[in-house]
Design brief:
Length: 594
């Protein structure tokens, strides 16, 4: 009886071992969820686990969820007491797109030639929770740690008052930025703008929303609003490559980083521009806004007739120095005055323009005497006090000590001068009697036939035949030169527009439109390219590549800038004439270099 008992126990033990061995050889393919109930602001991790390696893994469509990351694979293999343990996992990180009950449907895989499917599981998505849990993805970390901010110095400036915009990229110390690329640069419509170059990108310590961050200044620009009311500053957009640390470590224990690309934007900014008050506005107000000093000086106050002196009208200080017109002196008609020479010494910083601008007039007196240069007034609006201010120069007396007097000119028959015309002084021997008796001599009779003229006309056709042949060949060569003909037509077109600009002197808008077309057509003629769609920076680069000297290139770009500024700023006839003369000079210099 005892022997039979032992046999039964042995059989039962052997059966158990056999069944256990069969279980270990069985293929398993299961789905595991990090949670079965989560808030709409939480993340769900789904693992598909198998105990043997397989192929042709086919995940479900994850209806009701957005895949943030995956599939990522993990493989673990170990030996224990001679038994091998193997596991392979496909992992996904999901974000719910709506509230409700959803099903994680079946996934499939082929293992040892057979297809296995996982069971479907139900997940409930509730309202957002206060403290979301779950593993954050690389994109989640990048979103929370990367911010592009446009810092505006003033959101309610006056018309033509300076404001600055500084674009800063804030980066959390937990991540690093390896590269960035601008996607869309803002266009500052209704603003006069000037970039302040960032010479070197250097990270600085700061805070963002009360947390420690590092930041880099990417772009700085100074703006002068040219229109009152609500104006939009378009956003700056960047594509940034971000390195985010993960919880994984390499063979040596170092943290493994994951890289992702993120698009960040500074967002639109609205500026409310206040109109300049009409109360107290002086009649001579020319649009100057800022804090200025005004002076009128002369190089000398005592000289002889026909000598020259310089009278300088100068405005210095801080404000929109490039955007207003200088007052003009009202001088006696007996002084000959030449067109002024404009000088500009302005630098632009984040606080705006500062420096000085001036007009220098060359004055030549014709007669002896004392000539007053009357007081000149200059008015501007001060944003700090929100009031208009008026500055006046002192009267300057010019003493001409030697030269003809205006009275003696009248006695000798001088014609009084008008404007800047010189006087004409008559003498006593300018008119004489006409002689009535002529001194004519007989030249005799001439014969055409046999004369020198006869033989010249006879030989003329023989000379014209080879000349006609040479001219015909030259015309054929010119007609076949398609590129050359295009260049000639473009040259004619450039001269046409420059001529039109000259005709439009005094008409600001038409003059600068014609001048801009002339400049572009000149480049088209010389370089055989279309420049109408080029920016000033591209044109400057192109001229540098063509080895045009810096002075000539800067003069050309300055003319294009004046053509743009003329849309928003008052320009005098003097400035137009200077720009026209400068255009002729620049084209002449570029002809020599190109």
């Amino acid at each position: 009886m005892g022997f039979k008992k032992y046999i039964a126990m042995f059989s039962l033990f052997f059966t158990f071992i056999l069944m256990n061995a069969q279980d270990k050889d069985a293929v398993t393919f299961e789905v595991e969820l990090s949670k079965e109930k989560l808030g709409i602001n939480e993340r769900l991790r789904v693992d598909f686990v198998m105990n043997k390696d397989g192929d042709e893994f086919n995940p479900p469509d994850f209806e009701g969820f957005r895949v943030l990351m995956g599939p990522s694979q993990r493989i673990s293999s170990s030996w224990f007491n001679g038994v091998r343990s193997y596991s392979k996992t496909y992992s996904y990180t999901l974000a719910p797109t709506a509230r409700g009950k959803f099903s994680i449907k079946q996934a499939s895989i082929v293992i040892e030639g057979k297809t296995y499917k996982s069971l479907s599981k139900q997940v409930e998505v509730t309202a957002a929770v206060d403290k979301p849990s779950g593993e954050k993805t690389v994109d989640d970390v990048a979103d929370e740690s990367l911010h592009l901010v446009a810092e505006v110095s003033k959101t309610d400036p006056f018309l033509n008052e300076a404001l600055s915009v500084v674009y800063k990229l804030y980066v959390s110390p937990s991540i690093s930025v390896s590269n960035y690329r601008p996607l869309d640069n803002p266009k500052y419509n209704n603003f006069w703008s000037q970039d302040i170059p960032v010479s070197k990108l250097s990270a600085q310590n700061g805070t963002y929303q009360g947390k420690p961050y590092r930041y880099v200044i990417l772009k700085r620009v100074v703006l002068y609003p040219q229109k009152s009311g609500k104006l939009e500053i378009e956003p700056l957009s960047l594509e940034v490559t971000v390195d985010v640390p993960t919880n994984k470590r390499d063979f040596f224990g170092g943290r493994i980083y994951s890289q992702t690309n993120k698009t960040v934007s500074a967002g639109n900014r609205t500026i409310t521009v206040k109109a300049l008050p009409s109360e107290g506005k002086p009649l001579n107000f020319g649009g100057a806004v800022g804090d200025f000093d005004f002076s009128v000086t002369t190089s000398k106050t005592r000289l002889n007739a026909s000598e020259s002196l310089q009278a300088k009208v100068e405005v210095s200080g801080k404000g929109n120095l490039k955007l207003f017109q200088l007052p003009e002196p009202n001088l006696p008609s007996s002084l000959e005055v030449y067109d002024p020479e404009f000088e500009e010494g302005v630098r632009t910083t984040l606080s705006g323009m500062q420096g000085k601008v001036s007009n220098s007039y060359t004055i030549v007196p014709s007669f002896k005497g004392k000539y007053p240069i009357p007081s000149i007034s200059f008015s501007y609006f001060d944003p700090a006090t929100e009031k208009y201010k008026n500055l006046s120069s002192e009267e300057i007396m010019i003493d001409v000590v030697q030269g003809p007097s205006s009275g003696s000119a009248a006695q000798t028959g001088a014609i009084p001068s008008t404007g800047n015309k010189q006087t004409v002084v008559t003498t006593g021997d300018q008119f004489n009697f006409i002689k009535l008796n002529s001194n004519l001599t007989n030249i005799g009779l001439t014969h055409f036939f046999g004369s020198t003229s006869f033989y010249l006309w006879l030989l003329l056709p023989l000379v014209l035949i080879p000349l006609t042949i040479v001219t015909g060949k030259k015309r054929e060569a010119i007609a076949s030169d398609v590129v050359g003909n295009k260049i000639k037509r473009a040259n004619k077109l450039a001269r046409k527009y420059l001529s039109k600009a000259k005709k439009e002197l005094g008409n600001k808008e038409a003059f600068y439109i014609a001048l801009e077309k002339a400049l572009h057509n000149y480049l088209k003629a010389k370089l055989k390219i279309e420049t109408s769609e080029f920016s000033k920076d591209k044109i400057a680069t192109l001229l540098t590549e063509k080895k045009v000297d810096i002075a000539t290139k800067d003069g050309f770009i300055a003319l294009l800038q004046n053509c743009e500024m003329a849309r928003y700023s008052p320009f005098s006839e003097v400035q137009m004439q200077q720009d026209y003369d400068k255009a002729s000079e620049v084209i002449s210099q570029m002809d020599k270099q190109l």
